[in-house]
Amino acid sequence: MVVVSSTLAVGGIGRALDAEGKPVGDGGAALTRAFPRFADDLAWWTGAAREQRARVAPPY
């Protein structure tokens, strides 16, 4: 598990997304604002892990 520097906290996720998974209300707005940064951080760590795995075999 990797810890990313940005957080993605949405209280009441069932009220933040509609039936089609689209953001609604205040929770949806918070999710819309926070998700791009979270996704960028996660993508960076994914790339870093891929490069490290190519250099050194995992210790497990």
What does this protein structure show overall?
The protein has 60 residues and is an all-alpha fold. It is 58% helix and 0% strand. It has helices at 13-16, 25-55. The model has no long low-confidence stretch (mean pLDDT 90).
Give keywords.
mainly alpha; 58% helix; elongated; 60 residues; single chain
Continuous helix count: 2
What share of the residues does DSSP label as strand, in percent? under 5%
Class by alpha and beta content: mainly alpha
Largest sheet: none
SSE order, one letter for each helix or strand: HH
> Which outline best applies?
elongated
Low-confidence stretches: none
- Mean model confidence by pLDDT: 90
**Count of DSSP strands:** 0
Radius of gyration, in angstroms, nearest whole number: 16 Å
**N- to C-terminal separation?**
14 Å
Helix content: 55-70%
